[in-house]
Specification:
By secondary structure, the protein is mainly alpha-helical. The protein contains 11 helices and 3 strands. 77% of the residues lie in helices and 3% in strands.
Length: 317
């Protein structure tokens, strides 16, 4: 009973966390700050460009580009939840994050990341309907259905994230100014700091990971089996090339996003490394949001043409 009282007393003392520094050398800190800031600004500009072109070009007012615009918006929010705090910590290694702020960051990060994964599955379903049932596509993928698919993805992600965040932040954290071996309040590194039995919490984390990563990835894989079979039945070479080109962009993003996230959230704790998790987190925090607009704009003829048209129109005015 006394031990339990001590743990909860210590939890009240642990009112803030501190992130492990990338480097304590001032020159390296400034270099990292500049590098991460440039990446962040590039991510914002790239994804804002996608949203801008999707909203302003009438030819892109289709379900596929509606989902792409929402994905770009999610990427902007997703990185904004992490990067400003990270940049502040890079410059000031002693900068702390309050207990409540850490919980808010975790909730938003998990919610937005989960919505991102669900939306990628929705986009695979959209491609499945477009290629396998082209004549019924407009009847199936109505604007009402598209909106509900996005809203449903967001609501499910928010519920799962809230459940996970509340469960973790009811744990006792013993000590003052605990150090998180990460650059954000992600679930695995925060869970490692708890001074209590976390087996139930680990089980819930794996369950959420299966719902967010494994099940959507399985649905995407099934969709692409049908998509590939349908594409191979297309007789014209140009038709097959166009269908493969449209789907390959989405598939590249799926492999990068689900692959890195699965290694962090679905790998057994005994085989995971905090340093490896931090490196993988850099990929899905920076690389995936950075590549999304590049992949979709460079590999998509419609987006490229719409961007060129808008740039010429803007320059002309």
């Amino acid at each position: 009973m006394h031990q339990s009282h001590t743990n909860w007393t210590n939890q009240s003392i642990a009112a803030e966390f501190i992130f492990q520094a990338f480097s304590t050398i001032p020159e390296v800190q400034r270099l990292l700050f500049t590098f991460f800031l440039l990446l962040y600004l590039t991510i914002i500009c790239g994804n804002v460009s996608i949203i801008w072109v999707v909203c302003t070009d009438q030819s892109l007012h289709t379900p596929m580009y509606f989902f792409l615009g929402n994905l770009s918006f999610l990427e902007i929010c997703y990185t904004t939840v992490v990067v400003p705090q990270m940049l502040a910590s890079v410059l000031d290694v002693h900068r702390t994050i309050p207990f409540a702020n850490c919980g808010i960051q975790m909730f938003l990060f998990v919610a937005l990341g989960s919505t991102d994964c669900f939306l990628l599955a929705v986009m695979a379903y959209d491609r499945y309907v477009a290629i396998c049932y082209p004549l019924r596509y407009t009847l199936i993928m109505t604007w009402q259905v598209c909106v509900w698919l996005v809203v449903g993805s967001a609501v499910l992600a928010l519920v799962l994230s809230l459940e996970l965040t509340v469960l973790i932040f009811t744990l006792p954290f013993c000590g003052h100014q605990l150090q998180i071996n990460h650059f954000l309040c992600d679930v695995p590194p925060v869970l490692r700091l708890a001074c209590a039995d976390t087996h139930i919490h680990q089980t819930v984390l794996y369950s959420v990971g299966i719902m967010v990563l494994a099940i959507p990835f399985l649905l995407i894989s099934i969709s692409y089996i049908y998509i590939v079979a349908a594409i191979l039945r297309i007789r014209s070479t140009s038709g097959r090339h166009q269908a493969f080109s449209t789907c390959s962009s989405h598939l590249m993003v799926v492999i990068l996003q689900y692959g890195c996230c699965s290694l962090v959230y679905l790998r057994p704790r005994s085989t995971s490394s905090e340093d490896e998790d931090r490196k993988l987190a850099l990929i899905y925090t920076f690389v995936t949001p950075l590549l999304n607009p590049l992949i979709y704009s460079l590999r998509n003829k419609d987006v490229k043409q719409a961007l060129k048209k808008l740039v010429r129109k803007t320059a002309g005015s």
